[in-house]
Amino acid sequence: MEKVGKNFIFYFTSLSLCLGLLLNASAVQSETIQFELPPDSLAQWYKPANKRQVWLHTMFRLRREMQAVENYLAEGDGEHVQKWSQRLIKDYSSIAKMVPEWRDELELEWLEKLGESAKSSDFEMVSLSLKKLRHSCRSCHDSYQAQTVLLYRVPNYLELKISGPDHREVSYPDLMDQLSLAINQIKIAIEDREWQTAQHAVVLLNQRLDLLQQSCGNCHKEPLSTERILGKKSRQLLHLLSQQVKQKSAKSAASTLGKTAVAICAKCHGIHRTLGDLKRRFKRE
Questions:
Q1: Which of 153, 137, 159 is CA-nearest to residue 50?
Q2: Nearest CA to 88 among 108, 63, 113?
Q3: What is the DSSP letter of 131?
Q4: What pLDDT, on a 0 to 100 scale, did the predictor assign at position 29?
């Protein structure tokens, strides 16, 4: 398949057994989804290249300015329409300087009309100009927003390093593998009534979760996010699991292990894993 610019292709294949039975078809159906990456020049306005996150703040101001113009139009307040229109014009114009590749996508003629109509209190033309500008924003967001979030706002978990108990660094993927192995080992040992093995795996799970909790601070500066995943409730579940394994209560231990996996693993994965997996596949050529 021909490569177009910086486009990249996600291929995914789906096999629908129910549909296959209904249609008497056994062929695998495939679809191609194509995404276009934003220009390289956008990176300079995001972390780590830009500590102030200039691009994000510009977008936030644009949204606020458009809302203000729309609100004051409804009130017939020409003075404030003009004030907020001028701010909107300044920020919208800055996009062409920040990302020159997108200059031709901007509605600069309508931006000029916005300024002129705001000064003359031509509210009908202000409204039409604002509509055209909003359309250009939506068009760009539809084309690039998801990719930009993945590239510049989702952490690169593969780069995270965690200091182990022996002061050796553990990579994030290795730590995830160790957690998965520990949970599955507990499950296997409970089912086979290998209680000593289960106890050892519970201890290992707790140790690895302690290491994981250290890594949360790389992104989360407030304790609330970490508390939600690895806080008091989760620790209580882990303590209960340890007690039930010591008591050799297979049914209770299996149930608590399931609740623990949901409270910690599933809850964290639901927030981070999908985006992290997608980010690893967003590679520039």
A1: 153
A2: 63
A3: H
A4: 52
The set of long-range contacts for 154-157, using a CB threshold of 8 Å and a minimum separation of 24, is 154/275, 154/276, 154/278, 154/279, 155/218, 155/219, 155/276, 156/279, 157/272, 157/276
Q: Give the pLDDT confidence score for residue 24 in this predicted structure.
A: 47
Residue with tokens 């609330």: 224
Mean pLDDT, contiguous 10-residue spans, the chain (285 residues) = 36 34 44 79 92 93 97 97 98 96 95 97 97 94 90 80 75 89 96 96 94 81 83 94 97 96 89 79 58
Name residue 86's amino acid. Answer: Q
Cis peptide upstream of residue 155 (ω within 30 degrees of 0): no
Q: How far apart are CA 144 and CA 39, in angstroms?
A: 10
> To 10 degrees, what angle do helices 232-246 and 223-230 make?
20
The pLDDT assigned to 228 comes to: 85
Q: Is 248 helix (H, G, I), strand (E, B) or coil?
A: coil
Q: What is the three-state SS of 81-124?
A: HHHHHHHHHHHHHHHHHHCHHHHHHCCHHHHHHHHHHHHCCCHH
The DSSP secondary structure of 158-226, one letter per residue, reads GG-EEE-TTS-EEEHHHHHHHHHHHHHHHHHHHHTT-HHHHHHHHHHHHHHHHHHHHHHTTT--SHHHH
- In which element (H, E) is residue 12 found? strand 8-14
Q: What is the pLDDT of residue 10?
A: 32
* Amino acid symbol at 275: L
